Protein 1
Amino acid sequence: MKEIMKDILIGSTFKVAEIVIAKNIIAKLLYHEYKVKIYYKKNDDSRKNQNFLVLLHGIYGKSSDMESIAQNFKDNYRIINIQYPTTKETAEEISDLYIEPNIENIKEQICSENFHKKINKNFNQNVKINFVAHSMGTGILRYYLKENPLENLGKVVFISPPSHGSHLADVPFVDKLPSMLGKVVPQFSTKKDSFVNQLGEPDYNYMILIGNKTNNPLYSMIIRGKDDGMVPLKTAKMKSDNFRIIENTTHTSILKDKRTMKEISEFFKSSDLNEEKEK
């Protein structure tokens, strides 16, 4: 009997060890260190009339996820592509630690340029900061802009946004594995009191783009209604009618689709309602 109990104890110990090792491996695979990629030279006077474009990836993502967008717009915008870890902090902490400092740097740069532009009238003194965010990054951006309204905010594109959460974040075990999946995942549940559902309707000019094709049948079994493999189309929508479905694209393939680039380009070129009112 003692030998049987000993075997059970040893077996259980090994099983626990295997689970811990597996969790650590997964956590390391999902973690990506903070870094920022800038696609212009700060001392290049020829670009000081250009607006800024800040790119934010989604959950467990990397700056390379947004590379196609960066390459498409790098000649006409000063691009900052922010890579930030999503498995350590909450959405609020991610905003404070990784997003806010970069926007402050841009604001300081604009302020410095505006000082010189008062002397040189050939420079545009109304430089805007635009954003393109993907998936979870859209919620972090909404939080940042809610807490830090920008006077020179341009336009915002939300791609595949869980605007009212995703059913994947409703799965019971999600909030039990913060060391592996991260603290931010349960913040994007569809519950009325979740972080993302407390952000409210944006008060700035934005557009939503989302696909309607899944490449993950298992996830789609959990998600209710039509989805892109991660986010339901129903919960992606907000009050604005500026909502576009990029046919036959998934949650991630949408980031490289030419139609996505066209929609973003046309949106950025379109007249801003606030600017029209000022005129």
Note: Residues 5-23 have pLDDT under 50 and may be disordered.
Protein 2
Amino acid sequence: MQTVNQTSEGGMYCTSVKAGERWRDTAATSGSIRAEGALLSTEFSVFGPGEIREHPANSVGEEVVAILEGEFDIDAAGEHYRLVAGEAILIPPREPRRFSCATAKGVLYRAAVLLDANPARSGAASRQPD
């Protein structure tokens, strides 16, 4: 099993996440590529068959999750969804969430508001108004 490793590049003001060729790699069966700014976290996650990842209540802010490849069972805020590639879900803040891959391989894109937002932690420099 090949694991996808984190890769991001920081410019003066922006951080790019080079995930495309890694999550499309057929040998990559599990792992994540993540970048965090002052207020937002983004992540590409590759799942193997039946792989489950959970996040408890109060650990994640409001989040959008898009299915890029495969099919997932998603439990969030006490509700259950089966989503396929091309679909997305908006999950309210501070709710537990669980992602389970229902196919041989699945890829999620996640973008979440950080609950403990700290501008000093930004992966990219803050741009100041002129």
Note: Residues 8 and 17 are 4 Å apart (CA to CA).
Protein 3
Amino acid sequence: MSFSPVQASLEGFRFIRDRPRPVTVWMGALLVLNLAAALFNLSPWRQRLDEFQKAHDIQWSWDLLRDMALQLLPAATIALFLTFASLCIVAPSIFRVMLGKTRGPEFRIGVDEGRMFWLFLAMLLVITVLAIPSGIVLGLTLIVARPVAEAVGLSSFLSLAGPLVSFLLLSWIVIRLSLSAPIAIDQKRLDMLASWKMTRGVFWRLFGGLVLALVWTLLVALGSVLTFSLIAVVTTFILGMPPGEITRFLFPTDQGLLNHFGVGPMLWRIFESALLAILFCVVCGAVVYAYRELSPHREAAIPSDDDLTEHEAAI
């Protein structure tokens, strides 16, 4: 098996280098979702939802239930749609292009998007079901081990062991099920068991590939932020502006509509959307690379005309 974590982590960057036009389209789609989320945050529905979440000693009544149905339910529906839109509409578009199903990005609400929606819900359900007994076992283990750890002076290590084990358990579940997404797009079926079988014995290589992909993306993000900050400092110096003027230009403190959608905030939203598009491509590229390398149904390469000519000449 020739699966390489390093190659998997670089697959998305190679795609960005070779196919910048689809990446730009996906960045635009993520920017639209970002703007929609910003509009939702300014709506009375979101403000009412925040007030309800911060409320204490709620007195339930029919008026409160009616208020929730009229305001909180639409707010929760919009928030859920915006959350899943990037995963269930943009992600299938990326997978279709990377798997060669379409030549360019397509955004639609079709069968692929429906499969992706149910896949994410199923993964959340699996994580929840497995997290409850695992959390109970982990909690009991920590309770039993705490006196021993305090006796030998390892209490600080034990306090870190719980979150670390929880993180590894969550990573193990997500990575074992990660190939379900390309399977849903490529084979037109929901088959989490197939992903579980394909990733058997390669967890650490998959984990390493995804960690490296996230590290490269983080380095790109840091480099971009530093470059962005350097340009802002140089601009401030050339124009003779006060030191905090650029910050107020990009991140206005007022809550007005123009201050959220002015030139400065829009520049920052475009920057965020570009980084998010890179992250999507890098993660999806690593998953597609793993799917191609680990799939038991990989199609044999179709010989070219030159290969056939050489074969006939040899005969």
Note: The CA atoms of residues 120 and 211 lie 21 Å apart.
